[in-house]
């Protein structure tokens, strides 16, 4: 979590799945102009031009599932070339994903209003799709066979194979681009693309009937199809309330996959009483909507007051009793402990407090989650015994942000992928993965490159998008940090933003998915743009596939 003035708001974890597929996919298929023709649910396709196509059966199956569509009600045009945008759209539907209208465009030559924009962005967010040249996608260019090979391998999360045997497989192997050779070798091994007469024809355009056979082959593989069709469960999805009314918070959560809500209700006071700001409307809504309710218990980052409580067993028990009474009164599912700026001398006292609170809440059927910053060996985290807290509490929430903090003399990312990866790796060396929740930022920082320590400030992802569109702004994707770096000038001052948005968050979600942790959290609800939720859902879903 991050410090906001003297309070720490809890973060939210959102269950990012909303689809349970009964067949392999989705709704109607979109053709080049965005219309739906002969899509799913329209009965058997009645195309007049596929009877002699080698892909006739594959086309019929894909049309029924809404993955591909005809070009008119009665024509499929099997020999017509497939564009890069069309193939990306086919892939999104086949994988059971959602289009994502990225707030920051991944390529300069695609319009956010284009029918294919959400599909191209969705594939780019997952690193399945790549551009052609500097910041270009060429959506209307025909996809080549070697490009299709690369997409198929990435779609199935396979590892490209570099082998000289490809030269024994295809007589035109020398014509295959060097970057594409491992992908062509892999799709040959998988049986998804074979070529003909000993030739692969890497630069040839992929036709609609060829694309149908490739995609249908994936669904005819029981292992792959089962993964795509299975019900998704992405664990805890936790969202913190901050700077929003109850009505606003409910609306924010309703528009997200969050299944665990954390309002800022309980705070330790100087007299050792715990203030109660519970809201009956939110309690009723959480119960009716099936969301878990884990209100935050905060210390307002007050080191002295916190020491007064933690250093006295009587004070600790008094606070535990008050919090337990609130849990019982409001029938809460848990408490999110957010104590920050804790004195290192209170390390044992904090562990004792969490031990007592967890024991008490377990008798009420409630859980305890504890927010912690990355363990970097500094005084900021010295009060937290990660190993003992991980053993005692139900969940540990890793606040994986503030890599470069507010007031840092060196501008930089709030949460670059390498830094978050290292922080999570360290956490998992001390805390069981089944108890670990990774909190991600739905905010970033607008830095002055001249005076970063005093002339920089936090901004929402929406505010970030406005700056990205400002006249004269420059944007570059950093392949190491997995973030856009936005540079612009305001009032003659050079400024920089290390962006958090759908693409960067997708990379971090996928990384966390590889670790099979308990879930995700988000600081804070309302800081996001609407596209973020589909992006996160896609990343969690795609990462769960075990092809």
From TrEMBL:
GO terms for molecular function: chitin binding. Transmembrane segments: none annotated. Residues 42-105, 107-166, 167-229 form the SLH domain. GO terms for biological process: carbohydrate metabolic process. Pfam families: Glyco_hydro_18, SLH. Residues 234-543 form the GH18 domain. InterPro entries: Chitinase_II/V-like_cat, Chitinase_insertion_sf, GH, Glyco_hydro18_cat, SLH_dom. It comes from the Bacteria. This is Spore germination protein YaaH. It comes from Paenibacillus polysaccharolyticus. The lineage of its organism: Bacteria, Bacillati, Bacillota, Bacilli, Bacillales.
């Amino acid at each position: 979590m991050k410090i906001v003035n003297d309070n720490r708001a809890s973060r939210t974890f959102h269950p990012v799945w909303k689809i349970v597929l009964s067949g392999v996919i989705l709704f109607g298929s979109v053709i080049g102009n965005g219309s739906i023709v002969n899509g799913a649910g329209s009965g058997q396709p009645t195309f007049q031009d596929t009877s002699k196509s080698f892909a006739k059966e594959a086309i019929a199956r894909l049309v029924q599932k809404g993955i591909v569509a005809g070009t008119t009600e009665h024509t499929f045009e099997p020999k017509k070339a497939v564009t890069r945008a069309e193939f990306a759209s086919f892939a999104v539907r086949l994988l059971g994903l959602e289009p994502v209208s990225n707030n920051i465009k991944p390529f300069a030559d695609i319009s956010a209003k284009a029918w294919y924009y959400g599909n191209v962005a969705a594939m780019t967010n997952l690193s399945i799709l790549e551009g052609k040249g500097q910041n270009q996608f060429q959506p209307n260019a025909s996809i080549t066979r070697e490009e299709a090979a690369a997409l198929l391998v990435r779609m199935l999360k396979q590892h490209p194979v570099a082998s000289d045997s490809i030269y024994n497989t295809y007589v035109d192997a020398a014509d295959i681009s060097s970057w594409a050779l491992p992908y062509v070798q892999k799709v040959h091994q998988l049986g998804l693309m074979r070529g003909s007469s000993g030739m692969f024809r890497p630069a040839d355009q992929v036709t609609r009937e060829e694309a149908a056979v490739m995609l249908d082959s994936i669904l005819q593989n029981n292992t792959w199809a089962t993964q795509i069709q299975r019900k998704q469960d992405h664990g805890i999805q936790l969202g913190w309330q901050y700077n929003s009314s109850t009505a606003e918070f409910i609306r924010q959560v309703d528009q997200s996959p969050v299944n665990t809500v954390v309002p800022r209700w309980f705070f330790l006071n100087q007299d050792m009483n715990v203030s109660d700001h519970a809201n009956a409307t939110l309690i009723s809504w959480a119960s009716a909507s099936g969301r878990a309710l884990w209100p935050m218990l905060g210390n307002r980052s007050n080191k002295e007051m916190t020491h007064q409580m933690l250093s006295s067993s009587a004070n600790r028990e008094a606070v535990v009793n008050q919090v337990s009474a609130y849990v019982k009164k409001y029938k809460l599912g848990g408490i999110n402990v957010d104590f920050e700026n804790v004195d290192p001398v209170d390390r044992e006292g904090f562990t004792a407090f969490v031990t007592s609170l967890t024991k008490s809440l377990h008798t009420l059927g409630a859980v305890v989650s504890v927010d912690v910053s990355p363990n970097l060996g500094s005084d900021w985290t010295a009060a937290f015994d990660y190993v003992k807290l991980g053993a005692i509490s139900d969940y540990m929430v890793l606040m994986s942000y503030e890599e470069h903090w507010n007031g840092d003399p060196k501008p930089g990312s709030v949460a670059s992928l390498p830094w978050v990866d290292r922080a999570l790796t360290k956490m998992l060396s001390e805390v069981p993965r089944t108890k670990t929740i990774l909190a991600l930022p739905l905010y970033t920082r607008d830095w002055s490159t001249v005076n970063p320590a005093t002339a920089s400030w936090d901004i929402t992802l929406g505010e970030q998008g406005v700056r990205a569109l400002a006249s004269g702004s420059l944007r570059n994707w950093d392949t190491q940090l997995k973030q856009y770096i936005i540079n612009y000038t305001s009032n003659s001052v050079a400024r920089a933003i290390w962006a958090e948005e759908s693409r960067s968050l997708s990379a971090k979600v996928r990384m966390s998915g590889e670790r099979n942790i308990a879930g995700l959290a988000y600081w804070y609800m309302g800081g996001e743009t609407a596209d973020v939720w589909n992006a996160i859902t896609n990343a969690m879903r795609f990462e769960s596939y075990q092809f």
